[in-house]
Amino acid sequence: METLPILLIVSLLGMALAGYYLNRRLQSANSKIRDQNEEIGKLRAQLSESEREQIQREGLVATAERISFDLIFLLDAEQNVIAVNQSAARLIADETAIGKPISAVVDSLELVSLVALAQHEDECLEEQFVIGSSNYRVRAQSMDYLGQAGLISIVMRDITDLVQLNRARRDLVANISHELRTPITRIRLIIEGLFLDADKPKRKASIQSLKEIAMETDSLLWLAQELLDLSMIESGEAILRLVKTPLKQVIDDAIERLESQAETKNLTIVSHVPQKFDVLCDADQLKRVLGNLLHNAIKWSPLNDAITITAAENAEHIVVTVFDNGPGVPDAVRERIFERFYQADLSRSGDDGTGLGLAICKHIVEAHGGRIWAEGNSQGIGGQFVFTVLKADADFKQPTSEHFEDERAPKLPQSVTPL
Asked: Can you give the residue range of the structural domain that contains 191?
């Protein structure tokens, strides 16, 4: 009987000891669980950060792919296309381009040669050539990416506008040089003629020579003034005052200024413009438009003929037409005749114009909120120029740059407002 309490005590001690060790194990397990939870939390944070970085990278790549104006191709070591951006896809217009050789995707021997050369060079190679009807500056470079060797990246930039702008600049310089050379040469010859004779030049001959010098000087002054006027109009520095004006009065004044010039060819200028038409315009500038158009009509009209001016109305505009029975404007150059210095007669033999008159007309009309164009003479119907001008009661809308031929075209100054 005495051993029973001892066994009970031993048993209780054993259970207590077992509970102690079990508790220690539970605490150790809980500590490990907490450490694992902390580690899991860190891993989740790292994963979340990696996911955000991946989204950012993919977003940047996707954005660059969609908005880049450059054409981007990625080729493998065999020159097969493995990736393109949207700009490149628009050029090739081939949904199955992936996996095809670059030579089958882009029709350009120069590009294929540049790619072959880039495969054996470490540096970036750059060339400029024509593909289709466009000019491109092309860069090609070999690269290694994600363990893949021999990849070739091609970046193509369309520089057609820059090439055309550079060509226009060269043409402008050439045309200005040509226009200035003629009167300067004549002035020099006339002056040399005055001093060639051993004797004193006769008074009558001297006066005639001086008159010719004055005429050529006037031509130079006219050219300089037209260049200045065109520059001011295009830069927005020309101030227009748009007021309600009777169109017939403007046209009659323009006709009166050109009557003496028309009489030299026995021409009649006829106006069929109703008295009722009132327009929103700067009268002096609109007279200049009509004066340039009438000057052209007089120059190209046959002798003893007539020039007709008509006007008609539509919803917001008055449409004015200047018609003559001359050779008319060839269909192929109807758009180009409004360019600076452009003249349909490339030889310019006998042409006393500067090639700026129609360019000035275009900018003045567009600054008034209208437009101007030439009718083609496919049917041999003669010369016909048409322009529109706002009715006096129309809502004036300031023209935007998209109405003009390039970014340097005139922008209406703030001072141009209806009065």
From this structure: 162-233
Q: Answer yes or no: is 203 within a domain.
A: yes
**Shared-domain flag, residues 265 and 188:** no
Task: Judge if 73 and 205 occupy the same domain.
Answer: no
Among the listed residues 83, 86, 76, the one whose alpha carbon sits nearest the alpha carbon of residue 98: 83
Higher pLDDT, 335 or 232: 335
C-alpha–C-alpha distance, residues 9 and 370, integer Å: 115
Residue at 257 is within a domain: yes
Which residue shows structure tokens 């748009």?
242
Q: How confident is the model at residue 390 (pLDDT cuts 50, 70, 90)?
A: very high
Same domain, 397 and 257: yes
For 356-380, write each residue's pLDDT tens digit.
788 889 989 998 889 999 986 665 6
Q: How many domains does the chain have?
A: 3
Pair type for strands 306-313 and 268-272: parallel
Task: Give the length of the chain.
Answer: 419
174-233 pLDDT per residue, tens: 667 667 777 777 777 777 776 665 455 566 666 677 777 777 776 676 677 666 666 666
Nearby residues of 180 by Cβ (< 8 Å), 6 or more positions away: 220, 223
Backbone angles phi, psi at 120, to 5 degrees: -110, 10
Can you give the pTM of this predicted structure? 0.49
Q: Which residues of 260-274 are buried (b: 16+ CB within 10 A; e: fewer)?
A: eebeeeebebeeebe
